[in-house]
Write a structure and sequence with these properties.
This is ArsR family transcriptional regulator. This protein is an alpha+beta fold. The protein contains five helices and three strands, in the order H-H-E-H-H-E-E-H. It has a domain of about 70 residues: Winged helix-like DNA-binding domain superfamily/Winged helix DNA-binding domain (Arc Repressor Mutant, subunit A, Orthogonal Bundle). The chain has a three-stranded antiparallel beta sheet.
Length: about 110
């Protein structure tokens, strides 16, 4: 659902926040941060989930541009794409960190 004034950047941020809201998707990102995996290897890394569930989570991550895939023969190789997380960090987390540090400085004074 779009709100008046939403920009493509805002929509992209919403997709990233939605993707990161799931602990399973964060676990998938952690797995891919350690090393690229084929779809089969990634599914095997989550024996508690069926293949369809892993693929559904992957679709959400790909729509948020957090995961990229490339075909090599019959295999699909998946990799972490960290730029959307950096964008979130730069836009949101860094400014809140500065505000928290400023507040602590004022409390120490």
């Amino acid at each position: 659902m779009s709100v008046a004034g939403d920009t493509p950047e805002t929509d992209a941020d919403e997709r990233v926040f939605k993707a990161l809201a799931s602990s399973t998707r964060r676990r998938i990102l952690d797995t891919l941060a350690a090393s690229s995996r084929t779809t089969g290897e990634l599914c095997a890394a989550f024996p508690d989930l069926d293949r369809t569930t892993v693929l559904q989570h992957l679709r959400v991550l790909e729509r948020a541009d957090l995961v990229t895939g490339r075909r090599v023969g019959r295999e699909r190789h998946l990799s972490l794409a960290p730029l959307p997380i950096k964008r979130i960090h730069d836009r949101w987390i860094a400014s809140y960190t500065r505000a928290a540090v400023d507040l602590l400085d004022r409390l120490d004074s």
